Amino acid sequence: MATATYPPPPPYYRLYKEYLKDPDSAPAPPPPIEGPYVLYGANYTTDDVLPGLEEQGVRQLYPKGPNIDFKKELTALNRELQLHLLELADVLVERPSQYARRVEDISLIFKNLHHLLNSLRPHQARATLIHILELQIQRRKQAVEDIKRRREEAQRLLKEALGTLDGQ
Questions:
Q1: Is 73:116 a contact under the CB 8 Å cutoff?
Q2: CA 29 to CA 154: how far, in whole Å?
Q3: What is the pTM of this model?
Q4: Average pLDDT, stretch 80-108?
Q5: Distance CA 24, CA 108 (A)
């Protein structure tokens, strides 16, 4: 069995030879990418914008605009999905050759549900971050209270020890 040695390091390792002595001697990292870029043949962008359903060629089943009642719309789409699933079951029993339209309708409802849920992600991220920060504040307050309590206990023990020493 033949074995090979490890390949030599890339030539840019020489840029870091003084790093341990002077960490500022290393080259600066490249600037972050902004705007569109190509990765593995696909186009991407650094803008975190949720594209609309109609931009993706999907019919939107809920009203457009910034003031969407998410709970109401998700409930309505969920009920519509249940109805279409029951209709699909009925069509599969009665007329199995005509199921394709029902499947397309169900797919459209799922895409709309998915898009509505994805539009709630920024709100969910904010709420999660707020919750995490509140927990951190609570833990720090508890730690401060614990330190104060231990300090008072240590002061009490020191007073007792001084009282015991003075009593001898």
A1: yes
A2: 50
A3: 0.62
A4: 93
A5: 55
